[in-house]
Amino acid sequence: MRELAGPAAAPRLRQMQGDIRNPMDLEQAFTNAPSGVDAVIHFAGLKAVGESVAKPLQYWDVNVNGSRCLLEAMQTHGCLTLVFSSSATLYGYPEAVPIPETAPINPINPYGHNKAAVEQMLADLHVSAQDSWRIACLSYFNPVGAHPSGRIGEHPLGIPNNLFPFVSQVAVVRRAQLQVLGGDWPTPDETGVSDYIHVMDLAEGHRAALNCLLAEAPQLLTLNLGSGQGQSVLEVVQAMEAASGLSIPYAITKRRSGDAAISVADPSKAAQRLGWRTQRSPEVICRDGWAWQQQNREGYM
Q1: Are 80 and 133 spatial neighbours (Cβ–Cβ below 8 Å)?
Q2: pTM value surpassing 0.85
């Protein structure tokens, strides 16, 4: 990270391993910051839909209780600016696509319920001190890809719970074949359609949201971060085959509980408020993801 950040930024980077549910870890993180903490970008949590169905108590503890602990620590230390990592799973089975921020909140799995609960907590907190808190809730659609250097990417523990790392691991023969979860969806090729966003576009969206919060009056801002374009599972497979030059075997299996047929963002509000749009195509997503997987066939070692 320090090497990629460059000599100007590297000295300001500090790393600490801890648990957001642990008040002592949070206290250490806030008190050890040399110049204090101006803002928090909250990524910490568990994020797999299928796993959340199997382990709901663990997800509620980490994602909701952990967020509460973080907010208490922020309030204690007078740090009242937060960018929160939310999710398109809030919308459940959308009434229409693309999905605007005004769509009904109707999660269909524990992970989505977690995100809805934290967003409600943040809304209540903002109401309690409207002249103080600056909060942005960013509903991600499907972050994928890797840093273009090929040195930072996604390395899930065990069997991946998300499509993109699973496809990448099949391409390098770490997995025998991809399990396509459902071949009977009401979509053109009968596989699920999602809005995939390059992680670098996502990072730039966070920077834009934070700059907006710091520049404007206290507010609660809710935004979708997505491309506005959908790709099916089989289209992702084809794109990765093109990027890697390899054939990716797959088998159609039953649907996974908690999935929706189509989930595509309406990102127009982010464009209007932040001047932000995705810049990287599905081809670039697969190229960068494949570069990471090639250089890290077994993940981080």
Answers
A1: yes
A2: yes
111 is catalytic: yes
User: Which tens digits make up the pLDDT trace of 198-216?
Assistant: 999 999 999 999 999 999 9
State the residue range of the domain holding 180: 2-295
Q: Which carries the bigger pLDDT value, residue 6 or residue 246?
A: 246
For residues 273 and 150, what is the distance between their CA atoms, to the nearest angstrom?
31
State how far the Cα of 30 lies from the Cα of 217, in Å rounded to an integer. Answer: 24
Q: Is residue 301 part of a domain?
A: no
Write down the catalytic residue from 59, 91, 111, 196: 111
| Residue 168: inside a domain | yes
CATH of the domain at 286: 3.40.50.720
Task: List Cβ neighbours of 196 (8 Å cut-off, separation of 6 or more).
Answer: 141, 142, 143, 144, 164, 227, 231, 236, 282, 285
